[in-house]
Amino acid sequence: MKGLIKSAIIPSSVFIWIGFVGAISFMEAWIKFQVTELSLPVGLKVGKLVFHALNKVEWTLAIIILIQLFRTTGKIIKWSNLYLLIAIFILVLQTIVLLPILDIRANAIIENQTLPESHAHIYYVATEIVKVITLFLYGFNYHKSNS
Fold first, then answer.
1. Which of the 8 DSSP states describes residue 111?
2. Exposed, middle or buried: residue 19 (CB in 10 Å: 0-12, 13-18, 19+)?
3. What does each C-alpha distance from 64 to 34, 44, 95 come to in angstroms?
4. 97-117: per-residue pLDDT in tens?
5. Which regions span the lipid bilayer (predicted)?
6. Which of 59, 101, 133, 147 is 20–30 Å from 50 (CA)?
7. Domain coverage including residue 111
């Protein structure tokens, strides 16, 4: 039983991570703006709160996966982990570059400021898509090689 739980930690964490990103980025973010009574500033405040919570969950899952990889193989940097490492690189990029840019823009809109056009949101969505694809490929390959 103990071995089964250990072997399930990595793929479970990967697919839970995919589920969180899918539910928040590809569903909640779009649906909340379908509510006509929800003003743009309130929607942006909710979005900031939700995406920062998602980011913390993603980091928690990434750390769980990395710790378990290190415990089981002693190595993290290897070809079989390439898709995972790409997903984590994207998470780093989102955390230190894209989320702060989007926060600044959201705060300015909340304060009713006019802003020049930006593609930061499109970049964020594109990185989410790539991250989910790489996580899926990693999880699928991990499961296939450990079955």
1. T
2. exposed
3. 35, 30, 18
4. 999 999 999 999 999 998 899
5. 12-31, 51-70, 82-102, 122-140
6. 133
7. 2-145
